[in-house]
Structures are given as structure tokens and as C-alpha cells.
TrEMBL record:
Organism: Pseudonocardia dioxanivorans (strain ATCC 55486 / DSM 44775 / JCM 13855 / CB1190)
Name of protein: HEPN domain protein
InterPro entries (alphabetical): HEPN_dom, UPF0332_toxin
HEPN domain ranges (all copies): 1-113
Extent of the signal sequence: none
Family, as annotated: Belongs to the UPF0332 family.
Location of the region described as Disordered in the Swiss-Prot/TrEMBL record: 118-140
């Protein structure tokens, strides 16, 4: 969770210095690292951002009783970051401020969830298996 807190700090510094688009991106990364930590506790790993977001909502929010608002906020931050990263206009300051606050909420909710072993403890054989990779082609 240390990385999540570092990203919150970076987002706050960027926001305070007028870098709203970058602040939104760091806010998402804070929430992302919290979500990834929650999944790791359950023995889960995922390859990219969208997979982490989906697995977090399914495994942590739906199956392990994390506040559904945390899942909605993470997905919203992910979508906002995609739009901001590929857009040409800077993110409005109020939107970036909300994003940082939302990331703080996600991080706090995950920390509460982690502190409750009844919800966060991994159960034997419960991790979602990833599909096997297809065999590599041999050169002819």
C-alpha cells in the first residue's frame, strides 16, 4: 500500500502545481496499486490495467464484500485516465481534485478491507486460474 500512498502524494503535488491531467493519472495509479494489492492478497495477478480493474470488481467487491463504491470509483478513474491521456485538452481542476479525493477513498476502503481478515484472507484453492498460454510455435 506504500506505492498507493506515494501516488496520492504525487497526485496532490501535481494538482497543487497546476498539472491537472497528470494529477488525474497519478490518482488512478494510486487506486490501481491499492486494487492490485488486494488481488495479490487473494493470490491473483493480472497483466494490464483493465484486467486488474475487472478482477478487483469481481473478486474483491462482489465476492469479498468491499464497498461497491470503491469499485465504481476505480472504474471511473480508469475511464477518466484513458480519456485524459488521449485527449488534447487539460483536465479541469475540479475534475482532477475529485479524482484525487476518489483515489483516497479507494485506498482507504482497501486498507479497511485488508484489516478485516474475515473478508480479505485468501481461502485455499480460491484464486481464479488464468488460462494457459498457447504453446509457442517452433521455427521450421
Amino acid at each position: 500500500m506504500q506505492r498507493a500512498h506515494e501516488e496520492i502524494d504525487a497526485a496532490t503535488l501535481l494538482l497543487d502545481n497546476g498539472f491537472t491531467t497528470q494529477a488525474l493519472s497519478r490518482a488512478f495509479h494510486a487506486a490501481y496499486h491499492a486494487a492490485e494489492t488486494a488481488l495479490l492478497v487473494l493470490g491473483e495477478t493480472r497483466g494490464d490495467y483493465s484486467d486488474v480493474v475487472s478482477a478487483f470488481v469481481r473478486r474483491v467487491v462482489r465476492e469479498r464484500a468491499l464497498d461497491p463504491e470503491a469499485g465504481r470509483l476505480l472504474r471511473a478513474l480508469f475511464n477518466q485516465t484513458l480519456l485524459a491521456d488521449h485527449g488534447y485538452e487539460p483536465v479541469p481542476a475540479d475534475e482532477a481534485t475529485r479524482a484525487v479525493a476518489n483515489a483516497c477513498t479507494v485506498v482507504a476502503e482497501v486498507e479497511k478491507w485488508l484489516a478485516d481478515p474475515g473478508r480479505s484472507a485468501a481461502r485455499r484453492g480460491e484464486a481464479t486460474r488464468l488460462p494457459a498460454k498457447p504453446p509457442r510455435r517452433r521455427p521450421h
